[in-house]
Predict the structure.
Amino acid sequence: MRIAIGNDHAGPTYKQAIIDFLHTQGHQVTNYGTDTENSVDYPDFIHPVASDVAQNKVDLGIIICGSGNGAAMTANKHQAVRAALCWNKEIVALAKQHNNANILSIPARFVSIVQAVEMVKTFLDTPFEGGRHQDRINKIPCA
């Protein structure tokens, strides 16, 4: 699977742990995130991930910032992106099952690295249920 990942200064250690996990699973990773904790503007690192997802250059995206909110808001400005802010595996599973989320937004200041990796595993392993959920997803875009 092709996965794009992006993060701001709150997420370099999270990103590296996630990339390491993804590589052990045989996934191809495009890294758009910063590697330092020096303050940066999260949209600069999130827009490339969302663009890749929207243009089908990758299968899924993972974005990380302090609260996960700014990253999710930024990603969701792109057509065909359904970024889900999640803080545990159960929310991740529902975001994939019911909303067919194609980007996982992780709040680095509110989950541990171990939890974040578990969330990524759930994100990759959970299938979309389709059916009535697809009808709802079809109503999300404004344009």
Summary: The chain has a mean pLDDT of 97. Residues 63 and 105 are 5 Å apart (CA to CA). The two ends are 29 Å apart (CA to CA).
